[in-house]
Amino acid sequence: MAEEASMIAAIGAVAANGVLGLDNWLPWDIPEELAYFERTVEGAALVVGRATYESMDVVPPDSFVVSRQPDLRLKSGCHRVVSVEEGLRQALATGKPVFVIGGASVYAAAWPYCQRFYLTRIEREFAGDTLFPDVIPLADWSVLSERVESYLERKSGAPVACRFIQYEQANPRVP
Ligand SMILES: NC(=O)c1ccc[n+]([C@@H]2O[C@H](COP(=O)([O-])OP(=O)(O)OC[C@H]3O[C@@H](n4cnc5c(N)ncnc54)[C@H](OP(=O)(O)O)[C@@H]3O)[C@@H](O)[C@H]2O)c1
């Protein structure tokens, strides 16, 4: 796990055309990128939108699911929260590092509170129905690290470059 307790970070992946989702899943099939996500958030408290939560087979304990539905039933160890800010506060109270894991609507609300954004830029265009929010001013954040790997994208059978970038925001808001 990459972050210390009390730090709020976001993690996600985006295609060259800004797409991040298709049919409530990822537009691409790159197991190595998914494994990077799982490694990075291991042991963290997660803040996740209801749609993304429903797309996940395995949801770790201390996951805070943002939803306006008061009667939402969740897997054991998961908690409904009424807003992203409430989710961030409850996630911080666990004492674990906190990761915002999407989807688009949750990134759009959470970015002002994030000190880091772990963003994988997938250097190809993909068809999709959900876009990375263009309100997030990552161009103004500093780049802490950056590395590129080439992996086989399984749906197309073609290699694709994945650029793993860690951005840092200087003065994140307190939720
Ligand atoms: N590429 C990536 O890294 C990545 C990461 C995560 C997800 N995704 C993809 O993104 C897509 C889903 O994104 P999405 O934006 O459609 O859905 P989402 O953010 O996962 O969930 C949306 C739902 O969250 C709740 N919500 C969101 N903001 C809220 C707020 N401010 N207050 C209260 N509730 C709030 C609402 O739930 P209720 O309707 O229950 O009220 C809303 O319908 C999927 O395709 C998923 O696979 C991609």
UniProtKB/TrEMBL annotation:
Superkingdom: Bacteria
Pathway(s) of this molecule: Cofactor biosynthesis; tetrahydrofolate biosynthesis; 5,6,7,8-tetrahydrofolate from 7,8-dihydrofolate: step 1/1
Species this chain originates from: Azonexus hydrophilus
UniProt-listed GO biological process terms: dihydrofolate metabolic process; folic acid metabolic process; one-carbon metabolic process; tetrahydrofolate biosynthetic process
Name this polypeptide is given: dihydrofolate reductase
PANTHER family linked: DIHYDROFOLATE REDUCTASE
Entry GO MF terms: dihydrofolate reductase activity; NADP binding
Entry's family note: Belongs to the dihydrofolate reductase family.
CDD domains (UniProt xref): DHFR
GO cellular component, one term: cytosol
Role: Key enzyme in folate metabolism. Catalyzes an essential reaction for de novo glycine and purine synthesis, and for DNA precursor synthesis.
EC numbers, comma separated: 1.5.1.3
